[in-house]
Design goal:
2 copies of one chain form a homodimer. Chain A has helices at about 15-25, 45-50, 70-80, 100-105, 125-130, 165-190, and strands at about 5-10, 30-40, 55-60, 85-90, 110, 135-140, 150-160, 195, 200. The first copy, chain A, has about 200 residues and is of the alpha/beta class. Helices cover about 35% and strands about 25% of the residues of chain A. Chain A is built from 6 helices and 9 strands; from the N terminus they run βαβαβαβαβαββαββ. Chain A has a single domain (about 5-200), classed as 3-Layer(aba) Sandwich (Rossmann fold), CATH 3.40.50. In chain A, the strands form 2 sheets. Chain A has a 7-stranded mixed β-sheet, with helices on both faces. A two-stranded antiparallel sheet of chain A has the order 8-9.
């Protein structure tokens, strides 16, 4: 079985990208190799980190294209040139269009800092904190055409502590993100994930 | 400190009612005594169980009243006659009107078989199962004027197992309901719950 090429989309520091890339490079995720990283933000820290990993890192400027579709086509071209099997969205702040999703159906994994379907969209940790839940967490899922609605791969629960702030809570969630995202990528690369309708069966 | 009178609303067998009543009777919930049980279903098993506990149990027929408000007024009258401090909705299948909620503001506890705000409304366990979440659970909350939107008291996470059916999942969730509902009632009766905006602080 050929190793899978894992590429990344990131808009920020991409600590989740780093957590996965490290485990690919160390061999903990054994059936994968590093592809490219694409960012829509020129000074995203993730670009620098990717280069430190010896990866190709591309800034693809959304303002240089006439439409979202054109921007995405340029990105998809880069991903295909790298023979990408799996895309990891690690804090990528754009909604993918149906075109992009179809090109990589059930091959784009997103990490979301809440127990979906609770608190989709941005600032999920703060949404949960402000709502007053006692348990929140994080979710890995395949991206479909909705916002954070795709088939769920893994989830981890994180209790809200009495003295938490939105920030301290977000930090504890992030630690769990760094656990389930590499695990999900590993399962994908070992062909252990099967999507059946809305459900992801771990074989 | 006077003991709190805890009354119940139930439409079915009321296993959650039973879990709480048992702990009140045994003294595990020490600062409470049993009030009345009201059901909107004539042959609800909960009516019988309540009588076995030596409680007054009332069937209040919704069809005997011209309006929901009139039905609720009759129920509130019974609750007040019993000097009810806290109402536990244990599988009560009617939405309470704002009138009822205001009469007992932050004094009606509901148990919901999902990690709210995910999967409000009926058949929450099956909703979660069909959605394909990997973690669900249960929630106790004060009832407000929305459907399962009130301030959250406690939550318990329950993982979905690979060989689960909606039924086996519901059974495991029910076990956790029987834990957090009595705990929540106990906290209330010991004046340990403080509602601050949307949040319930456990003192």
């Amino acid at each position: 079985m050929r190793k899978k090429v894992v590429s990344f989309l990131a808009s920020g520091r991409g600590s989740n990208f780093q957590a996965v890339a490290r485990k690919i490079q160390s061999g903990d995720i054994s059936r994968a190799c590093l592809g490219v990283l694409v960012s829509d933000v020129p000074d995203a820290k993730a670009l620098e980190i990717a280069r430190d990993f010896g990866m190709k890192a591309h800034f693809v400027d959304p303002r240089a294209f006439a439409s979202r579709a054109a921007h995405e086509k340029a990105i998809v071209k880069l991903l295909k040139e790298a023979n990408t099997d799996l895309i990891v969205a690690a804090g990528y702040m754009r909604i993918l269009t149906p075109y992009f999703v179809r090109e990589y159906k059930n091959r784009i994994i997103n990490i979301h800092p809440a127990l979906l379907p609770s608190f989709p969209g941005v600032h999920a940790q703060k949404q949960a904190f402000d709502y007053g839940v006692k348990i929140t967490g994080c979710t890995t899922h395949f991206i479909d055409e909705g916002t954070d609605t795709g088939p769920i791969i893994m989830q981890r629960a994180v209790p809200v502590e009495p003295d938490d702030t939105a920030e301290s809570l977000a930090e504890r969630i992030l630690k769990e993100e760094h656990v389930i995202l590499p695990l999900s990528v590993d399962l994908f690369c070992r062909d252990k994930l099967e999507v059946k309708g809305r459900k992801v069966v771990i074989k």
